[in-house]
Amino acid sequence: MAKSSDKQEREYSAPAVDRALDILEFMAKHPHPYGATELARQLKLPINSVFRILKRLTEREYTKQDPVSGGYQLSTRVFTLGMSLYTRFDLRLRARQHLEWLCRETEETCQLQVPQGDRMLVMDSISPETEFYLRVVPGSLVYFHPNAYGKSVLAFMDEEEVKKILPSRLPGLTSNTIVLRTDFIRQLEMTRKTGLAYDDEEYTSGIVCIGAPVFDVEG
């Protein structure tokens, strides 16, 4: 069965599509313009292939060329494409009024996040009408471990599932970030007891967050 599966995977593979997606994902994470040569070096792809893909993406208006540097970056068409999907998320629509209420009550930025692979996806974010607030962009992918929302999800998973998601050594974003998985798993015990998770300047210095899991329609 394994050999048959490998054969099918080879038959249905599309290297050009994979390369185009690699380029788009790289650009999404690195917003400043990149030239074809630099993209090829960063992604370890053939320069001729990268150049052809960029030319086609630009023709289709998914990328644009910076008039000063000549480098390429994502265009607003990608944003439009993403927003067309964004409005279809039933969970986001159901949670919206509750986020708005919580934002008004606390005068703090309130978010809805869901797991996506080894990251948490920000599905929605509401900011208060105050002079200073934390701005979080919907569609962002953020780490589990220094994130109150990520902790609130991991706390109610089996430990083996947590170990599959998190490496033994975790990226340290600030001096407060827990970087050892064993220490992090111990911290999750308190979240399980209280139902609340905290980010005490672990993701960004000066920013503290509180997160809680939503298990079903009852909360």
Q: Could you tell me the radius of gyration in angstroms?
A: 21 Å
Strand arrangement within the widest β-sheet reads 3-4-5
Residue stretches low in confidence (pLDDT < 50, at least 5 long) are none
Averaged pLDDT: 90
CATH architecture of the largest domain: 2-Layer Sandwich
Assign an overall shape: globular
Question: Considering the protein shown, what is the CATH homologous superfamily of the largest domain?
Answer: GAF domain
Count, helices = 9
> Biggest β-sheet, characterized?
3 strands, antiparallel
Summarize the structure.
The chain has 2 domains: 2-80, Orthogonal Bundle (Arc Repressor Mutant, subunit A), CATH 1.10.10; 87-211, GAF domain (Beta-Lactamase). Helix content is 47%, strand content 14%. The protein has helices at 2-11, 15-29, 36-43, 47-59, 76-86, 90-106, 148-154, 159-165, 181-194, and strands at 63-65, 72-74, 110-116, 119-126, 141-142, 197-200, 208-211.
Q: What this model shows, in words?
A:
This protein is α+β, with helices and mostly antiparallel strands. The chain has 2 domains: 79 residues, Arc Repressor Mutant, subunit A (Orthogonal Bundle); 125 residues, GAF domain (Beta-Lactamase). It is 47% helix and 14% strand. The strands form 3 sheets. It has a 3-stranded antiparallel β-sheet with strand order 3-4-5. α2 packs across α4 and α3 crosses α4.
